[in-house]
Amino acid sequence: MAAQKKVIDHVSGWLTVYDDGFVDRTWTGPPQLKFMSDPVPPHDHFIDGVATHDLLIDAAKSDLRVRVYQPEIQEPGKLPILLHFHGGGFCICQADWFMYYNIYTRLARESGAVVISTYLRLAPEHRLPAAIDDGYSTILWLRDLAINKTNHPWLSGRGDFNRIFLIGDSTGGNIVHQVAKKVAGETLHPLRLAGAIPIHPGFIRSVRSKSELEKPQSPMLSLDMLDKFLKMGLPEGSTKDHPVTCPMGEGVQGLDLPPYLLCVAEEDLLIATEMEFYEWMKSEGKKIELLVSDGVAHSFYLNKIAIDVDANTSEQTRKLIQGISYFVGSH
Q: Is 298 a residue of the active site?
C-alpha cells in the first residue's frame, strides 16, 4: 500500500503543502467566495468595452505569459500601458482570476489604458526572486516591442511605450518597487517608466507593527497568511526584514525612480509599515503621492461581493480607480 501524503503546511482556504512537494491551491474556504479565484477565459470580442488576450512572451523562461486587457477606444493615438503584478503573498493567485478580471477590465475601460498582467511564478515551488525576474522579463518584452524586435498586431501600433506604469496589488506592490529599482539602473530606450503604483504593498517588518496588532483581520489578509506566505515566498532563511518586504533603508538616493502613487487603506493590517515606506521615500527626495481609502481593509476592491453590497466599499473602489486614472493621465 502506498504511503499517504502528509500535510506539512496549510494556509486557511488558500493553499496546502504536502511532504512530497505538491502544492494544492484548490479553494477550501467559504464556497460563496470561490468564484473570485475562478479563471476567466480570454475573449477577443469586446465585453463592456474590453477585450482580453493571453500571450506567450518567453517560451524559454518557464513559458512566461501575460494577459492583455484592450480597451475599446476608437479615437486614434497611443494608449498608456499599465504593467500589472498580482498579489497573493508570492504563493497564490493568477493573472486570469476573476477578482483581477473584474477590477482591471474596469480600470482599462475608465483610464483608457492597456493593462498587461504577468502570470508570475509562485512560491514555494519558485521562491523569490522568481516573481521579480518574471516582472522584469515582461519589461524586456515590452522593450522588444518598442524597438520592433518583436511584434504584436495591436500593441505595437497602439501602445505608448513612453508611458509605462507599473501597478501591483499587495505583494505585487513589492514587485512594483523592485522592478522600478532594477529598471532605474538600466537604459531601456525607447521604453520609459512614467510611474509606479503600489496598491496596499506587502511592506512589513519581523516585529509586529501597531496596525498589525490593532487592525481587524479578514479572509483577504490575516496574520497567519502573512507569516506563512512570506515564509514560503522569501528566499530560504530570510526573515520579513528582507529588502523585498522591508525596503525602508535601502539606498535609493542615486536611483532615478519614476513618480509613485502609493495607495493605502485605512483599516489595512499593513498600513503602519506602508506609511513608513511613504515617509522614507519622501525623506530620500523621491516623488511620491498618497491615496488613502477610508474605512476599508487590505485589497478591498478585489472583493466583488463587498463592492456589490457595501456602499462604502463601492465608493472607495470608485475613488481608487478615479485616483489611479488621474495619476496615469497626468504623467
A: yes
Domain count, the chain: 1
Would you say residue 15 lies in a domain? no
111, 170, 209, 293: the catalytic one is 170
Of 84, 134, 298, 299, the catalytic one is 298
Backbone phi, psi, residue 16, to 5°: -130, 130
pLDDT digits (tens, 9 = 90+) for 265-324: 999 999 999 999 999 999 999 999 999 999 999 999 999 999 999 999 999 999 999 999
* 21: in domain: no
Residue 25 lies in a domain: no
Portion of the chain with pLDDT greater than 90, in percent:
84
Task: State the CATH number of the domain containing residue 217.
Answer: 3.40.50.1820
Looking at the predicted structure, is the pLDDT value of residue 1 above 50? no
Does 62 qualify as catalytic in the annotation? no
Residue in 137, 268, 293, 299 annotated catalytic: 268
Residues spanned by the domain of 274: 40-329
Residue 103 belongs to a domain: yes
Decide if 200 is catalytic: no
